[in-house]
Amino acid sequence: MDRFVFLTFDGLSRGAVYAAFALALVLIWRATRIVNFAQGAMAVATAYAGYSVSAATGSYWLGFGVAVLAGIVLGTVTERVVMRFVDHSSPLNEVVVALGLVLVIQGVLGMIYGNEFRPAAAPFSRDAFTVGGVALLSRFDLFVFAAVGAVVAALALLFTRTDTGLRMRASAFAPDVSRLLGVNVGGMLTLGWALAAAVGSLAGMLVLPTELGLHPNAMDIVFVSSFTAAVVGGLDSAVGSVVGGLVVGLLLSYVSGYLGATVAPIAVLVLLVVVLLGRPGGLFGRSAARAV
Amino acid sequence: MTTGGGKSGESGESGMTVLRYLMWTVFAAALIVVLTYALPPFRTYQLATVGAYLCVTAGLTVLTGLNGQLSLGHGALMATGAYTVALVQDGLAGRGQWTLLVSVLAAIGTTTVVGGVVGLAAARLRGPYLAGLTLAVAVVVPAVASTWDETFNSDQGLSVVLDPPPGTVPFERWQAWLAWAGALVTMVALTVLVRGRFGREMRAVRDDETAARLAGVSVGRTQVLAFVVSAACAGLGGALFAVLAQSVSPGAFPLSLSLFLLMAIVIGGLGSLAGALWGAVLLVALPAVAHSVTEGIDAQRLEGNLPLALFGLTLIVVMLAAPGGIASLRPFRRPFARLRRKT
């Protein structure tokens, strides 16, 4: 029972990160109908930048800020320089270009930093508090919950309470009409990419210290888990991506805890297959004539 | 090696066609044999690698280019074939050359089954969903190898027991012959398949599923079959890789391998079997060129990473500079795509 409680909290903590990462995927999907397959690599790139700054200055938080800022820059550049010019008539095109970005980013990171694992320091202790002999949460887990909660709340406020959020939703929903009404649709798309990349970078900074460490390929498996989370929730649903993230986090935690860590990726694959075949719109998706 | 694109209306002269394929095959085989005698051992080994890659790229270009299904999981299918060869060779060790044929056939069989399972799921999925699912398949390889480590020996992998080549043939030459025998069989089989009824059905499904269904084509069946055929080719390619490297390990089939394969067929020209050949050549040549460039300067980190970056950059530039590439495959999908955007 103790173990179950511990695994549950651990899973929720992991799930919060997957939720944030899935949220970033959903942001871009809703705005542009593109699944950003390069998001994992982009997050790793910004994490490298952040940890380089931390190592140079000795301040973790400066590096953390640099990573998120680098996410904004990288997202903007990706949209302005590459994604904007992709022909959207076939959904294959965007996927292939994003995968090209993955190769470029991983190659460049490998050239600059080398392909060995580097330790990624956590800003808080990862030793869990114990309540009545049961290990529950570490300070770092609390930090993860706080950071992801803040991001989700900020995004919700942005999209539901501000003019900019309304413009972004309008650009995604009806680009032509929005343009007629004077909305800078291109700018809104860029803003969407910048925001999503920043959220992705934040998620990267939260997940890399846990077990992965810094490596050009470190986020591959996180990307797959988060994609699964987004699909579980329905790619169109922001709420769904958060719930999906928590579901995937719990599943991974239980599977790793009871069956062994190597089984976790297999469990993700099985979950993805089951959801795609059973309920392709996701738990929160609206049904469509041809959703998938 | 003929292109697979478009020209499917020449069915009246099937006798001539068979003769032409036969002549091409004999010509290609003769060329390979001459090359294996002319080239030094290392170049012969590279030639063999091109042959092994060709099996995979040819199968993948048929799936993605002609049937419109994107697979990022072909690296995992290659791993399936390679591990099958390793296991069967180990089981039949030392009984003669014929065991290699058995294990390669077993590899194709296993991969066909795995491809059928993935294909059944894939036939119901489109675009990014299919890409995500096959990506998950590609990522799962090391996990499978570690979970059942009594069989697959986790990260260390297995060694492939091979009998020495017959007579006094050097090992690299023997490997090149084996690899290209597989590659030529694949190319001929795919060319025949693509030029025939099945090829037309695949293209019909790719261009417009509704129209294909109205014309009596079973969309799901065609998609699953295309995936199975492509998987069988990947399995053969993987088996040949096991024979070439004489070992298999998860590290030999990383996610980047699947991305490289995709890049090779995009640059070679999607849906074209001749393009698959150029892609396979590129997959061997580009790392070799990058290696010789970085050899002079002391830059260990460039090794392996420079080709990665170059591959990615080429992929992006090709997609941006020639947007007609993939897009021209689905001219009739446009209105539907636009409708979907609005829902």
From TrEMBL, chain A:
Record lineage: Bacteria, Bacillati, Actinomycetota, Actinomycetes, Micromonosporales
Short name of any one Pfam family annotated for the protein: BPD_transp_2
One cellular-component annotation, GO: plasma membrane
Transmembrane segment boundaries: 12-29, 36-54, 60-83, 95-114, 134-159, 180-207, 227-251, 258-277
One GO molecular-function entry: transmembrane transporter activity
Swiss-Prot/TrEMBL GO biological process terms: amino acid transport
Domain of life: Bacteria
Family stated for the protein in its record: Belongs to the binding-protein-dependent transport system permease family. LivHM subfamily.
Source species: Pseudosporangium ferrugineum
PANTHER family with a match to the protein in the record: ABC TRANSPORTER PERMEASE PROTEIN, BRANCHED-CHAIN AMINO ACID TRANSPORT SYSTEM PERMEASE PROTEIN LIVH
Annotated protein name in UniProt: Amino acid/amide ABC transporter membrane protein 1 (HAAT family)
Compartments, record wording: Cell membrane
UniProt keywords, alphabetically: Amino-acid transport, Cell membrane, Membrane, Transmembrane, Transmembrane helix, Transport
Bilayer topology: Multi-pass membrane protein
UniProtKB/TrEMBL annotation, chain B:
Subcellular location: Cell membrane
Pfam families from the UniProt entry: BPD_transp_2 (PF02653)
GO annotations of cellular component type: plasma membrane
Primary localization: membrane
Membrane topology, record value: Multi-pass membrane protein
Name this protein carries in UniProt: Branched-chain amino acid transport system permease protein
Keywords (A to Z) from UniProt: Cell membrane, Membrane, Transmembrane, Transmembrane helix
Native organism: Pseudosporangium ferrugineum
Domain of life: Bacteria
